[in-house]
Amino acid sequence: MLTPTPTPDTDALYARVEAAATGTLYRLRRTERGFDLYVDVPQAGRGARLHTYRVALRPQEKTFTMTDVVRTVERGPYGASRATVETGRVRYRTWSRSLDGSERHSFSSADGHRLIRSAAEELGWGERKPASQRTALVAGAFGGLIAVGVLIGLAVAFWP
Asked: I need a labelling partner for 61 at 20 to 30 A (CA). Which of 35, 82, 110, 157 fits?
């Protein structure tokens, strides 16, 4: 895919997402292919998690692809830590509360998806599924067909 040059449509979408993210924990930055909306997910003393909604724009088609990238660092005993990265469509909710009840944090990955989708829909942009999600759907359908074929084969082989 070619790097999109800024157009009035891409600038309008960026501005709409930026306006929707104002006053929230979400931050926005332009990338070669579009933009990233990212947020530090509150973690109660267990480490750190950065959720990035990577948006690739196709201005000529007025479509976008959204991919989640979640980087997590978990602290273990004696200063040991473990880092993981998840990519694709990541859905989760977290919530925590301090022991004395003074701090409460909650996060849903669906909120960022909604923020981007609503801004895009208002401007007439459509969403395309990322390649990883399309591949998973095809693999799932293929696996389902194989399972049905096996069941039919077993039914034929063992029919009285």
From this structure: 110
